[in-house]
Structures are given as structure tokens and as C-alpha cells.
Specification:
This is Hydrolase. GO terms for molecular function: phosphoric diester hydrolase activity. 41% of the residues are buried. This protein is α/β, with parallel strands linked by helices and 300 residues long. It has a single domain, classed as TIM Barrel, CATH 3.20.20. The longest helix has 44 residues. Strands 1-2-4-5-6-7-8-9 form an eight-stranded parallel barrel, surrounded by seven helices. It is built from twelve helices and nine strands. The N and C termini lie far apart (52 Å). α11 crosses α12.
Length: 300
């Protein structure tokens, strides 16, 4: 009888141990799944908030992630397919570079000459909008106007738009900034966009002429103390090339009262350096999924 009780007791202990292991394993898997999606979900949640609200809550512990030209390694730059991929990866902000056609229309392209991205030796600043609308991106899409992007995505996503100065003959150097302001107003995106420029004059023109002082401005500035000291006080972000940036420069930006931004994260090592050593308030990344996963891993 005593033997039977001992055997029964051991059996119960074994069952309890197995049950505990099962519970711990399932719990661990659920926690891992939650953590692996936490950063992605938190970025996706930002889409329902205004840009100004997002900026007020961002800091090095909760940096904004800008999807640089969409998701460019598997899709053409500035294509809907690339933007869609970035959004699926959890992006709240997709980036557009815009420059003027010969007849003053805003097209979404980083380069004035389209050869690198389309294989066509076409210069945007010397080509009409009618001709540019027929240029293929390589995936069946055509070169997009900024108006196409606004119509396609509306308020479902946030935009960070860089005014590119391609010096169209007969146009003022800051005309692209003026046209960008008009487009943002026309499509009602004033609360849904950040405007960026590497030209102080361009930022001044947008700030003065747009009548939209509430649109946050990001200055793509040189990584130098002098430039930081001379940056216009009305900008929100001061952005620097991560390869040239130091903790001292990041501190100088903070002392001016600006948010810090870094461009462009391309490899895992860039993410590590950005978030371990430099602690930015926002970043541009070519790999939205990798950056969001890294942020999640750092926060664990």
C-alpha cells in the first residue's frame, strides 16, 4: 500500500511538472510574440495621430522611424509598391523627394536625371509633366506626381517630404518650396506632413510663404557645430549623416532646442550605432522592418 502511494505521488508530481513546463513555454511564446510585434504595432498606432502629437511624444526611447523612399531594396524608389511594403512593415511615415518638371509640376524622384532609377536618360527639370507621366519605374507603375501620392494614400499615412532643388530654367530657386506648400494646402495635409530641405533658403521660403507655420520643418544640415549654431530657430528637426555624427554634435543640436535626426540607416550596424551611441529622436531607414525590430530588442 505504501509503495502504491509513493508511485502515485511521483506520478502526480510528474504531471504537475509537465503542466508547469507547458504553461511556462506557452507564456514565453506569447510574450516573445508580443515583444516582437510591439515596436511594429506602436509605429502603426502613430498613423491615427497628428504629426504634431507624435513629435511632442517622441524622444530617444520612442524615436520616429521614417521609411526612406519607401522600401527600396525590393521595390523601385518612390513606388506605391515600396510604400505599401514599408507600411506593412509597420511604418507610420513614408518619404517623398519632390522636384519640379519643366512646366512646374511636382514629381516624386530623388534625382533630376532618371537614369539611375528608371534606365531612362531623362532630366526632370527639362521635361514636361505629360512626358514624365509616361516614364516606367520598372514594376508596371509610372513616375508619380506628388498629387498621385496624396490621392492614393490620403490621411492613411504620414508623409515626410523633401524639396529638391533642380534649378529649372526661368524659375526661382525656392519655387519648389512654394509649389510644395500649395500642394499640401490643396490636399489638406497640413497636419499630416513634415517638410525637409537641405537649403536654409528653401526652408525660409516655405516658412514665410506657405502661411503654414504649424508644419514641422526638418533641416538636412552639415554635421558641424557652426552649422548647428547658425540653423534657423523655426526648424523642428536638425538632421545629420550618421557616418559623420558624434555624441558632441547630437548634444549641440539638443542645446539649440531641436529634435535630433539621423540619415540613413542601411545595415544592422547603423541601427546599433544610432540607438546605442547617438540616441536620436528620429531616423531615416532603408530597412523599416530591421529598424523596428532592433528598437524592440533594445527596449526589452
Amino acid at each position: 500500500m505504501h509503495v502504491k502511494q509513493t508511485s502515485h505521488s511521483k506520478y502526480l508530481k510528474f504531471i504537475v511538472l509537465v503542466a508547469i513546463l507547458v504553461v511556462v513555454t506557452i507564456g514565453g511564446l506569447l510574450v516573445f510574440r508580443y515583444l516582437s510585434n510591439d515596436s511594429k504595432d506602436s509605429q502603426a498606432t502613430l498613423r491615427s495621430r497628428t504629426v504634431s502629437a507624435i513629435i511632442k511624444s517622441c524622444d530617444p526611447q520612442h524615436p520616429i522611424v521614417f521609411s526612406h523612399r519607401g522600401s527600396i531594396y525590393d521595390n523601385p524608389e518612390h513606388s506605391f509598391a515600396g510604400y505599401d511594403a514599408a507600411i506593412r512593415d509597420g511604418s507610420a511615415f513614408i518619404e517623398q523627394d519632390v522636384m519640379l518638371s519643366k512646366d512646374g509640376k511636382l514629381f516624386v524622384t530623388h534625382d533630376d536625371n532618371l537614369f539611375r532609377t528608371t534606365g531612362r536618360n531623362i532630366q526632370v527639370s527639362k521635361t514636361s509633366a505629360k512626358q514624365l507621366r509616361t516614364v516606367p519605374l520598372g514594376n508596371g507603375e509610372k513616375l508619380h506626381e506628388l498629387a498621385d501620392v496624396f490621392k492614393h494614400y490620403g490621411n492613411k499615412i504620414h508623409y515626410i517630404i523633401e524639396a529638391k532643388h533642380n534649378n529649372v530654367v526661368g524659375q526661382n530657386a525656392t519655387e519648389v518650396d512654394r509649389q510644395l506648400a500649395l500642394a499640401i494646402q490643396k490636399f489638406g495635409q497640413g497636419k499630416n506632413v513634415i517638410v525637409q530641405d537641405s537649403s536654409v533658403e528653401g526652408l525660409k521660403a516655405f516658412h514665410a510663404e506657405s502661411g503654414m507655420g504649424t508644419v514641422p520643418l526638418l533641416y538636412l544640415g552639415p554635421a558641424s557645430l557652426k552649422s548647428i549654431e547658425q540653423a534657423p530657430s523655426f526648424i523642428t528637426f536638425y538632421s545629420m549623416n550618421i557616418a559623420q555624427t558624434t555624441p558632441q554634435l547630437m548634444s549641440a543640436v539638443k542645446q539649440r532646442g531641436f529634435l535630433t535626426d539621423l540619415w540613413t540607416l542601411q545595415e544592422y550596424a547603423d541601427n546599433r550605432r544610432a540607438f546605442k551611441d547617438l540616441h536620436p529622436d528620429s531616423v531615416f531607414t532603408n530597412e523599416t522592418k530591421i529598424t523596428l525590430k532592433y528598437l524592440n530588442r533594445v527596449s526589452e
